[in-house]
């Protein structure tokens, strides 16, 4: 699919799943067959925030994701350090050169060695523009196992501008779509009561509007706070809105 056709298609998607499926297929045409996309809205100077709040999309295998994400290797990945300090695209040659010159910390070296064992050896990383200090997003594009970093750099020299644009547009579209994190999802009722709170309604108002008791409304609010790992209802409304779970259209 050419650039114009792809960008047009991306704007039409209404779910994260269909967009991601199309994006994986499109990047595969350039030789990047394993991707990890992610962003956080809760970054601080010392942390990327609670991993349960990350928006993560990937087509890597379960074994790799378990080690890289679940076991926390990502936090010491050499290219993540680049992402936190830069925007745009970068060749994984940076990590290879640091490893060859023995400039990686022990933990970063462990991540590098893990990637080598798992066949994640050549690729590019894109760091997206950060509109606020709390936001950081990036995508890792791992090349096919038969491609060397030299070959990947040649692909980038020819198509890098288009690849950057495709990823940036896909990223901006993702930011508009609802994301239901496994540990942060709300039920339809919980979303509904939070929506009424967001509209300025009291618990008594919501009970009347929904035809439920105030005790039931309070229960839905309590469960919503627990699911979103926040202490107040105002925080729950904000976090649900940040992940586009407020006013979500049912498929």
Our count of domains comes out at 2
Binned strand content: 5-15%
Using only C-alpha atoms, the radius of gyration works out to 21 Å
Structural class: alpha+beta
Largest sheet: 5 strands, antiparallel
Overall 3D shape: elongated
CATH architecture descriptor text of the largest domain:
2-Layer Sandwich
N-to-C order of helices and strands: HHEEHHEHHEEHHHHH
Give the termini distance in whole angstroms. Answer: 27 Å
Helical content band: 40-55%
CATH topology of the largest domain: Beta-Lactamase
> Strand order, biggest sheet?
2-1-5-4-3
At the first level of CATH, the class of the largest domain is Alpha Beta
Uncertain stretches: none
Mean pLDDT: 91
Number of strands: 5
Q: Helix count?
A: 11
Q: In CATH, what is the homologous superfamily of the largest domain?
A: Transcription factor LuxR-like, autoinducer-binding domain
């Amino acid at each position: 699919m050419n650039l114009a056709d792809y960008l047009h298609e991306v704007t039409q998607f209404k779910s994260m799943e269909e967009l991601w499926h199309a994006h994986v297929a499109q990047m595969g045409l350039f030789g990047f067959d394993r991707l990890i996309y992610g962003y956080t809205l809760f970054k601080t100077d010392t942390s990327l925030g609670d991993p349960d709040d990350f928006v993560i999309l990937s087509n890597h295998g379960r074994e790799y994701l378990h080690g890289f994400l679940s076991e926390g290797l990502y936090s010491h990945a050499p290219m993540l350090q680049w992402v936190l300090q830069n925007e745009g695209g970068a060749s994984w040659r940076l990590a290879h050169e640091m490893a060859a010159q023995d400039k990686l910390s022990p933990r970063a070296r462990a991540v590098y060695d893990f990637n080598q064992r798992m066949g994640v050896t050549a690729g590019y990383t894109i760091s997206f523009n950060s509109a606020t200090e709390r936001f950081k997003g990036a995508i890792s594009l791992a090349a096919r196992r038969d491609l060397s970093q030299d070959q990947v750099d040649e692909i980038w020299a020819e198509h890098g501008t288009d690849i950057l644009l495709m990823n940036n547009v896909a990223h901006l579209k993702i930011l508009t779509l609802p994301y239901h994190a496994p540990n942060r999802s709300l039920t339809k009722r919980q979303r509904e009561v939070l929506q009424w709170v967001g509209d300025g309604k009291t618990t008594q108002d919501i009970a009347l509007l929904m035809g439920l008791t105030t005790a039931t409304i309070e229960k839905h609010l309590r469960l919503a706070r627990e699911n979103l790992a926040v202490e107040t209802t105002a925080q729950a409304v904000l976090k649900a809105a940040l992940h586009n779970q407020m006013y979500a259209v049912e498929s």
